[in-house]
Specification:
single chain; alpha/beta; five-stranded mixed beta sheet
Length: 430
């Protein structure tokens, strides 16, 4: 397979592995934009080979993103830290269009048989590429779009009116339209008339194949509604604790991840001493500890809720801070209090420490002293050896170097967790 610089390296590795393992597949569109794809990479795959594709994709760092009610669509996402780029595969086993993917063509097997190789990549024949792209634009998007308007006239020159997809469209066209007229309109770039055709074609299609459309609509809507419940169990997000001395860049990192991460992000401050209350005559023993424990549990429960909703939760600090040494000498009761605080909440799925020398931290913020910041830094490093799934990241670099590395670390945890349920489903009947 000769892809050269045509495809992003991860995509090139994926495509090569699919061919090497005998997967029957084809690019649906967008083959000119594979080096740095801005949108989805759309693939058509033989149904019996989807488990094989899933195994290959997971092995290359793609996370299978659970989704329900989207027809035959299966989604896989990967992150390239070097390019700060998200890669998304949209894999289908059938060619179905319109709302609820109810307008099925039944042409997928024939399209895979007629696929051709261009620069080593399997793509649809020009005729199939014309009809699938035009139907996608008219029935899914509602217009042709400037990008595809530049490609469709060239494809129209090689489109047929007697092929399988053309015959299907011809039989479903509203009065006054035919496959021949559609090809002619695309050749002449008559996009307004074709855009107006879209709703009429969809209505005619639904009328002509009423039973099949109703069945598919009901099935996809039912899956979509049930998916709202399944998402709570099978599409959980991740809870990540960010630990670091002052000046390491936790706030900057959190803001950057919130802006660029693939899924929604929520940030929760879990600092132990967010509010300081003066002791007075009316001080009740144990009340301060109760407030701190309540605050920790409130933060953890808020994070658990967002995690269930599929969001990434970033804890700014965590109860683990109570395990760090301080300048105070504690009585047995004080030590017991700090132990209780440190173990107040269950462990997050991942702990990330932003590590930088004390001198660097002092130069950034000018608070405390470089010596004290270095002491805190070493205490954090010692603490991490006692925590499960903890990672140290060099935070002495610029923020735009740190963010992609942390994003990649978090995404690898998504891949590990979301792909586990597929680990025993690798075998398929080719």
């Amino acid at each position: 397979m000769k892809t050269g610089a045509r495809a992003h390296p991860t995509l090139e590795s994926l495509f090569r592995a699919l061919d090497d393992e005998g997967v029957v597949w084809s690019l649906l569109r967008g083959e000119a934009d594979l080096a740095l794809p801005e949108g989805d990479v759309d693939l058509l795959v033989a149904p019996q080979h989807v488990p094989r594709l899933r195994r290959i994709a997971v092995g290359l760092g793609f996370a299978p993103v659970p989704a329900w009610g989207y027809g035959s669509h299966a989604f896989f996402v990967s992150y390239d830290a070097a390019a700060d780029l998200w890669l998304k595969l949209d894999v289908v086993t059938e060619l179905a269009f319109g709302s609820d993917y109810a307008l099925a063509t039944g042409a997928e097997a024939g399209c895979l048989e007629r696929r051709q190789r261009v620069d080593g990549l399997p793509v649809l024949s020009d005729d199939d590429a014309f009809w699938t792209l035009l139907l996608h634009r008219l029935l899914d998007k509602g217009d042709v779009g400037s990008r595809d308007a530049a490609r469709l006239p060239a494809l129209a020159e090689r489109a047929r009116t007697d092929g399988m997809l053309a015959r299907t469209v011809d039989s479903l066209c509203p009065p006054g339209w035919s496959a021949g007229r559609i090809v002619a309109a695309a050749s002449k770039s008559e996009w307004a008339s074709l855009a107006a055709l879209g709703p009429e074609l969809a209505a005619s299609w639904r009328q002509a194949r009423r039973a099949d459309v109703r069945r598919r609509t009901l099935a996809n809507r039912s899956r979509r509604w049930s998916g709202k419940l399944l998402r709570w169990r099978r599409r959980r997000g991740l809870r990540v604790a960010l630990l670091a001395p002052d000046g390491a860049g936790k706030s900057t990192l959190t803001s950057g991840v919130q802006d660029a991460f693939y899924f929604p992000v929520r940030s929760i401050n879990m600092g132990l001493y967010q509010v300081r209350r003066p002791r007075g005559r009316g001080h009740v023993p144990g009340l301060g500890l109760t407030r701190q424990l309540s605050r920790q549990w409130a933060g953890w429960l808020e994070g658990a809720y967002h995690q269930r909703r599929g969001r990434l939760v970033l804890f700014d600090r965590y109860a683990y801070d109570a395990l760090l040494p301080t300048r105070f000498r504690y009585s047995r009761l004080g030590k017991a209090r700090r132990w209780l605080l440190a173990h107040a909440c269950p462990a997050p799925e991942l702990v990330v420490m932003l590590d930088a020398p004390g001198e660097v931290l002092y130069e950034r913020k000018g608070e405390k002293t470089a010596a004290l910041l270095e002491t805190q830094r070493q205490a954090y490093r010692a603490l991490l050896s006692r925590l499960p799934r903890a990672v140290v990241v060099d935070a002495s670099r610029e923020a735009e170097e740190v963010r992609p590395e942390v994003t990649a670390i978090i995404w690898r945890e998504y891949v590990r967790r979301w792909s586990r349920r597929y680990s025993n489903r690798d075998e398929d009947t080719a």
